[in-house]
Every structure is written in C-alpha cells, then in structure tokens.
DNA sequence: CGCCGCATTGAGTCCTATCAACCCTCGTGG
DNA sequence: CCACGAGGGTTGATAGGACTCAATGCGGCG
C-alpha cells in the first residue's frame, strides 16, 4: 500500500501540479502503476528503436539517452534526473527515440502506456498533465538549445551547470553542491563540445573561483556570475 | 460548408494520420473551428507572453517565432510552414512562448483551446493526435538541435535546407525548388550563425554546383551530396 | 602489478565571428 | 521622374575560439 501511494506521489511530482488528482483517478492510477524498478550503473532501461510500451518516472539516480544518428555517430540527447519523465518523445512513433541507460543506481516507476490509453477516458486530468509535461519540455528544450547554438564553450558549460542546479533546487536538493555521475565526454556530447574543451572550461572556472570541481563533485561558488556568463552572448551580438 | 470541411482537412493534415476522424468528432470539430485567418507580411499572430488562447494550423505561407531572452537578445526559435501547428509550446504555461509573425502573406486556421478543453471528453481521437503531434516535435527538434550543436556552419546550413526540402516534399511541393521568405539574418539566428557566414556558405555551395540561389529562390542541385554534407560530423568525431 | 578508462595539459590548425566597406533593390517623397 | 535612404546581401581582412592530435597522470579493478 505504502509502495503504491509512493508511486502516486512520484507521478504527481513528475506531472507537477500542486493540487492532487480526483480520488477516482488516483484509485485507477494505483491499478495501472507498476511497482518501482531498480537499475544499476550501466543497466539499459530501453534500447533505441525498441517498441514503446511504457513511460518511466525517475525517482532517484541519473540516466542518459543516446541516439544513434549515422551508424558512425551517436549523440547524447538527454539527461534524466529525479522527477523527470522518460519516453515522452516516443509516444507518437511507437519506438524509443534512443537508448536510455543508468549512469548510477536508479529507481523508476513504470507507467504502461497501453493501460493508460485503455483508461484514457477515465483519466482526463492525468492526460492533461501529461500533455502539459510534454508541452513544457518542448518549450524549454527549444529555447535552451537555440540559446546554446550561438554560445561559446564557456557559456554552454555555464548554462549546463545552471540547468542542473535549478533542477536540483526544484527537487529540494542543494543548488550549489552536487555530484554528477556523467563523464566529461558525456557532457561534451550533450553540449556539442569535446571532452577537452569541457575540462578546460571547468579548470578556467576554478581559476576564477566560480566553481570547485574534484572529479565528479561540483560546488558552484558564485551563481550570479555564472548566470552572467551563461547569458553573455559571447559571440553573436547584433549592434543596431 | 466548403470552408468548414476545408478546415477539417487542414487539421487532419496537421495532426497527420491518413485515416479520418470518426464522424461524431468531425461534426463537433466543425463547431469548434474558427474560419480561416489571413495575415499579411510582418503582421503579428501573437506576442510573447500574451495569454494563450488558441492553436493555429498553418494553411499557406510562412511564419517565424522570436523569443526574447535577455532584454538585449532575441532568438529565432522556430519557422512555421504549411501544415505546421503553432502554439504547442504554450499549452502548459498559458502564455505564448514567443512572438509569431508572418514572413509573407499567410492563412491559418484557429482552434480555440478552451473550447477544445470543454469538449475534450468527446474528442478522444483528436486529443490523441494532438499529443502525438507534440511528442513528434519534441523528438525531432531535440535530435536536430543536438545534431546542429556539434556541426560546422557548412553542415548546419545543409541540415536546414534539407529539413525545409523534406517539409515541402511531405506537403506535396517540390523538394528541390522553393522560395524562402526569410532573410539570411533570420536563418543565421535560427542556426546560431551570423548572416555573413550563412551567405558565404550559400556562395560556397553554388561554387560546388550543389545549389543555385538567387535572392530568396533556392534550387537544390544535388540532394545526395547535401545529405552527405549535413551528416558529416565536420568536427566531433570520436576515434575509439 | 599492470591494465584500462577517465581526466588533464600542450601545440598547432582551421573555422567563424567581428568589423568594415560596398552593392543592389525597393519604396518613399520631393 | 528622379533622388534618396533603408534594408538586405555580398565580400574582404583579421583575430580568437575550439577542434585535433598527442602525451602524461591518476584511479580502480582484475
């Protein structure tokens, strides 16, 4: 029982709205939710191209999504942190858009999609929340990535750190100190940079007392200045 | 009557699935759809931050979405072509994510969102199509933009031309010859490049007989080679 | 102990932003 | 009808950022 309502809390978090769902939807959801799932480091949650059958809500841990493009190239297209919903980009195509694997031990709730579809008419509020969740992802990623496109490595890394920081803060963790289980290479692939450049940028930040990094432990020392760096055009400013 | 079913056809195109909606949904939709809207060049469809009240399906013409970031910087975050659905990124926030304006004369169908919500329970198929549409956008943009992040100007421009080409082809127009009403500067802002670099890249393509450009008329002369360019990592290849 | 993955550091090269100049077209107003 | 100006497009020179290639250090794990 405790387990199931935990799951419910998890969904409410993910499909975030402060007020809860109507009782009838909560009860029905209890019926649909699959008990939590546990992945160890390097375990694969789903493979690119595999048939889409469930959404997953991240409860703890960190995962990455890798999409093979070109038979020779694969991109890191997403990181998933606690509170994120995995699989929103697979709903229409019916296949997972990339291979999702755990960067560290992780626990997830599974929401089988066919059962959600079956009961769609009895879960109007939940569906609306799901719709909102996808809409928000679309808006935020579109903006973030377009912003990154015109930025220097310095600004891209700052954007990345601040995004992570904001995410942790929303979940109730410290926005200034955290551990990130991904490698420099992962971060580079996600940001469109090389691992060397990512590492060098961290070093430059450290020299400026903006950041303290030791291995994969990060301490943001000056959020205000990082924000200024993140939104500094670096290149690309028009002069009207 | 013709007008209304035209609108319906428009939606079916936008929320694309070959088979039609059930009759009951078609009839209800006729009731919801607002007769087509016409915009002239430079007319504004909606302003960033304005209250979100409708989705718009592009019937003809071309529009752009500009998002102000920083009080000093505004990014071109989307182009909208015939068949596209405008406003998917505003559903959850209740505010339009950017200012959308016409780059040339355009006609659109308006779908008031509150009425869609009111009849949500009687439009299950339509809602599902909307959900699919947003999911697809999320996946495609995520992939495209992450791809662009690591690419040279040469490859970015090729990606852009091919995306446009594919879009026109899907709508039944020529994939090799088209007019694009946006300026070099618009394209640059969208791709994270300067107008000079965009123009120079076009010139370089012309010198290689890949492309013929005159003003805003484009003729793709060698799709295969363009595709190779678009997916050539340019930089960023790992050697394992 | 020795290997392997990851991180750091350095030198050289290429790409692209920047700044500046010039051309063209078009719409406006005298 | 023409002059003018604004906006968009093209071209060139320069400087700096980031990739590439290569070598070294570090840590965990078999």
From TrEMBL, chains A, B:
The keyword Transcription regulation applies. Residues 151-224 form the HTH crp-type domain. It comes from the Bacteria. Keywords: DNA-binding, Transcription, Transcription regulation. InterPro entries: cNMP-bd_dom, cNMP-bd_dom_sf, Env_Response_Regulators, HTH_CRP, RmlC-like_jellyroll, WH-like_DNA-bd_sf, WH_DNA-bd_sf. PROSITE patterns: HTH_CRP_2. This is Helix-turn-helix domain-containing protein. It comes from Billgrantia sulfidoxydans.
């Amino acid at each position: 029982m405790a387990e199931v309502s935990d799951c419910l809390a998890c969904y409410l978090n993910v499909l975030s709205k402060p007020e809860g769902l109507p009782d009838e939807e909560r009860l029905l959801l209890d019926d649909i939710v699959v008990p939590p799932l546990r992945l160890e480091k390097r375990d694969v949650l789903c493979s690119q191209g595999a048939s889409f059958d469930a959404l997953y809500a991240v409860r703890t841990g960190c995962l990455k999504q890798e999409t093979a493009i070109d038979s020779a190239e694969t991109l890191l297209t997403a990181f998933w942190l606690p509170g994120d919903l995995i699989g929103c980009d697979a709903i229409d195509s019916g296949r997972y858009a990339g291979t999702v694997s755990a960067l560290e031990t992780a626990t997830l709730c599974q929401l089988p999609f066919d059962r959600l579809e079956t009961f769609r008419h009895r879960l109007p509020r939940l569906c609306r929340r799901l719709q909102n969740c996808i809409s928000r992802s679309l808006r935020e990623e579109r903006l973030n990535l377009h912003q990154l496109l015109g930025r220097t490595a310095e600004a891209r890394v700052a954007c990345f750190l601040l995004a992570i920081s904001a995410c942790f803060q929303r979940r109730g963790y410290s926005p200034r100190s955290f551990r990130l289980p991904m490698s420099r290479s992962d971060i580079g692939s996600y940001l469109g940079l090389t691992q060397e450049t990512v590492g060098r940028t961290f070093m430059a930040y450290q020299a400026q007392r903006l950041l303290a990094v030791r291995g994969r432990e990060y301490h943001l020392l000056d959020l205000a200045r990082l924000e200024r760096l993140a939104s500094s055009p670096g290149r690309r400013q028009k002069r009207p």
